[in-house]
Amino acid sequence: MTRHQAADSTPTTTGATATSATATGPMVAVTDLRRSFGTGERTVHALRGISFSVGRGELTALKGRSGSGKTTLLNLVGGLDAPTGGSIALDGIDLGGLDEDGRLALRRERIGFVFQSFGLIPMLTAAENVGVPMRLRKVLPAEREERAHTLLALVGLADHANQRPGELSGGQQQRVAIARALANGPGLIIADEPTGQLDSETGRSIMELLRAVVRSEGVTVLVATHDPTLMELADRVIELHDGRIVEEDVEQAA
Predict the structure, then answer these.
(1) What is the mean pLDDT of residues 16-41?
(2) Which secondary structure element, helix H or strand E, spans residue 144, and what is its range?
(3) How far apart are CA 99 and CA 71, in angstroms?
(4) Mean pLDDT of 89-109
(5) Cα 136 from chain centre
(6) DSSP of 80-134
(7) Burial environment of residue 176 by CB neighbours within 10 A (0 to 12, 13 to 18, 19 or more)
(8) Model pLDDT, residue 229
(9) pLDDT tens-digit readout, 204-232
(10) Number of Cβ within a 10 Å radius of residue 179
């Protein structure tokens, strides 16, 4: 058991469970992953042959300075970019064997994304923003509305469903973004610097929310962060430096 699996105050499960919840094997398996940009003397080696896996229901944090390869790695795992070499398996599916339509379907059905800049649509309410991924999957309006409100309650925003992003604080907007990431019941959430635009106290509350989501939804979270004070909330910390893994911290509960 990892150091956070025995924690309490778990929120109520929302109902839509990821299809991979009962599957076996790691949620993410990365093998000898490489990504280079440019050619010749201008070549930049963003990732230099890294390998690791992320277990199901685990919150793994990636740390490292700007330029260490964290965002490049998240983009590759999320199917937003293709590697120069090596392989990535997500929920047992080899991303290298998918065409663009296959990667799009994988992102839509199995991955939720949380960004530093929130990425909400200003003209839509919180509930409508949460409903966007379900609209893309053509979920019926009544079901979509019910799940959006359930997820907003999960992230502590039940009373803010009809407010637009401009009427919410930064922390509240990020909570809406987390609810949106959960909309289609993904097996994996990828979060790139989700607390980067928040003060330290609000940032910690967002990380605690992600921790609670891992417990309640059985979802796996892969998060990149610069903030060392947030590392204690992760099951595991992987440090990147110049595109290589230099340290892994898998601290066990006493």
Answers:
(1) 76
(2) helix 141-154
(3) 22
(4) 92
(5) 19
(6) SS--SEEEEEETTEEGGG--HHHHHHHHHHHEEEEETT----TTS-HHHHHHHHH
(7) buried
(8) 64
(9) 888 889 888 888 888 999 999 887 666 88
(10) 31
Long-range contacts of 157-165, Cβ-Cβ distance < 8 Å, separation of 24 or more: 157/126, 160/126, 161/125, 161/126, 161/127, 162/125, 162/126, 162/127, 163/125, 163/126, 164/122, 164/123, 164/124, 164/125, 164/126, 165/118, 165/120, 165/121, 165/122, 165/124, 165/126, 165/129
d(CA 249, CA 201): 24
Domain 55-79+99-249 belongs in CATH node 3.40.50.300: yes
CA atoms within 13 A on the CB side of 71: 10
For residue 72, how many other CB atoms are within 10 A of its CB?
21
Domain boundary assignment for the chain: 55-79+99-249
Is 91 in contact with 98 (CB distance < 8 Å)? no
